[in-house]
Amino acid sequence: MSRREFFRRSAGAALLAGLGTWGLAGCGGGAAGAPDGPVEIEYWHINTEDFGGPTVRELVERFQEQNPNITVRERFQPNAYTGLLENLQTDLAAGSPPDIAQIGYLYLDYVTNNFPFASVDELVESYEDGGYLDDFPENILELGRVGGELVGMPYALSNIVTYYNASMLEEAGLDPDEPPQTWEEWREAARSIRESTGKPGIYLQILDDNWSTQALIESNGGRLTECRDGEVVAAFDGPEATEAMQFWADLVEGELALNVLWDQGDQAFLSGEVATFITTIAKRQSLEEQASFDLRATTFPAFEGKQPRLPAGGNCLFVFSQDEVKRRAAWEFIKFLESPEGLTIWTKGTGYLPPREGVADDPRYLRDFMQENPIQAVAVSQVPLVVPWQSFPGPNGLQAANALFSATQEILGGQSSAEAALARAAGQVNGLIAGEPCS
Predict the structure, then answer these.
(1) What pLDDT, in 10s, does the model give residues 310-361?
(2) Which CATH class is domain 160-311+392-432?
(3) Where is the signal peptide (predicted)?
(4) What is the pLDDT of residues 224-251, one digit of tens each?
(5) Is 168:197 a contact under the CB 8 Å cutoff?
(6) For residue 345, how many other CB atoms are within 10 A of its CB?
(7) DSSP readout, 175-205?
(8) Where in the chain are the domains?
(9) What is the C-alpha separation between 256 and 201, in angstroms, rounded?
(10) Low pLDDT (below 50) residues in the chain
């Protein structure tokens, strides 16, 4: 029995064993309300005071007004998802885990293989009459699945958009009301921008998490990994991936695109040194507050004749409660967070996208907000294109990710062709993840 199977069965047995507490014993599960007596649960999150912390508190207060017998203790975890996971491991070992925690999409495999938890599939089967998940698009639910099981509830959701300086486009003789939509069109636009301003036209974020690299490769039909003979192997050395990365490198070599790390690219865009900034929608509020020019956004560029595939940023909600009463209360809180009311508060306060259908265009919830924030609406329009953010499996996954990032740096720095660098990196990655089974 695998480690994950052991945890699945252990958590599932605990969940079923406690159903009598709620009057739900039997084979069919079914809906139930909040607990009758007072209960306190703990919610771990990574939202700082500058990004979502006040919104978390507002959500907790609103939930407690509606559920006075449930007290939610929210606890901020420093150092983002890695810091949260370190503390989670410590508290689980001590037998006092949080009841709910935000788990970054990139860490789902790690969590499901190392920690006991109650999956969303189990919670829905035990506590809902059916149909609860119907309002969540299938591609969004896929973000919370591992091995076909919905382990976490997709919650915080972002994707990558193209911010642009409308004034720089106008200066280059381009129509800012009709921005380019494909990489090929942006290449031509960047030439015009270079000729008229002497500055590069494009900056695609560069970070060691390979988020933008995955977006570029998969939008051209490539993949980072694939399943071969039951094992995960590198696939980013394939022809589509190589073509996409060489396209990016050629833009840099021709001085049409900027090759700097994220923070430098951010400042270059805000200071008018580059016309576009292709990065997460989560940067919207910060850019709007700092930009001294006409800031606009459009969709992530497509390759001619192909549909983009955009890795999701953000997190899922996981239930780690080992007590049945707390677990049931935790599920009630998650349902509130995922409700149209909760998601409206969350989106307005953080800039994340609602993972649930019907919230963004409903006049009772976010329709007016989207009309007032057209950049946010661009990201919402791309939700059907969202795919899981890929990580490399196994204990050497981080080293594997670093191998791909190093190859990206070599390619963009002109030290190697995309074909040669990606082939070398694929060999390194396959050595690091050898024997890792497909999910």
Answers:
(1) 999 999 999 999 899 999 999 999 999 999 999 999 999 999 999 999 999 9
(2) alpha beta
(3) 1-25
(4) 999 999 999 999 999 999 999 999 999 9
(5) yes
(6) 18
(7) -TTS---BHHHHHHHHHHHHHHHSS-SB-B-
(8) 3-151+313-387, 160-311+392-432
(9) 6
(10) 1-3, 6, 9-10, 12-30
Rounded Cα distance between 191 and 198, Å, is 10
> CA 217 to CA 205: how far, in whole Å?
14
CA distances from 280 to 25, 285, 294, 304, 369 (A): 45, 11, 18, 22, 19
The C-alpha atoms of residue 374 and residue 114 are separated, in whole angstroms, by 41
Sign of the alpha-carbon torsion through 421, 427, 428, 433: positive
Task: Return all residues near 306 (Cβ < 8 A) that are at least 6 apart.
Answer: 219, 220, 221
CA atoms within 13 A on the CB side of 180: 29
CA atoms within 13 A on the CB side of 356: 23
CATH architecture, domain defined by 3-151+313-387: 3-Layer(aba) Sandwich (3.40)
307 Cβ neighbours under 8 A, 6+ residues apart: 219, 385
Instruction: Report d(CA 258, CA 199) in Å as an integer.
Output: 9
Say how many residues make up the chain.
Answer: 439
Cα(184)–Cα(286) distance, integer angstroms: 29
Q: Name the one residue in this structure whose structure tokens are 């694929």.
A: 426
> Each residue of 177-201: b (16+ CB within 10 Å) or e?
eebbeebeebbebbebbbebbebbb
* Interior angle at CA 354, CA 51 and CA 151, nearest 5: 95
- Token pair 């159903």: residue: 19
Q: Which SS3 state, helix, strand or coil, does residue 5 take?
A: helix
Q: Quick one: tokens of 75?
A: 């606890």
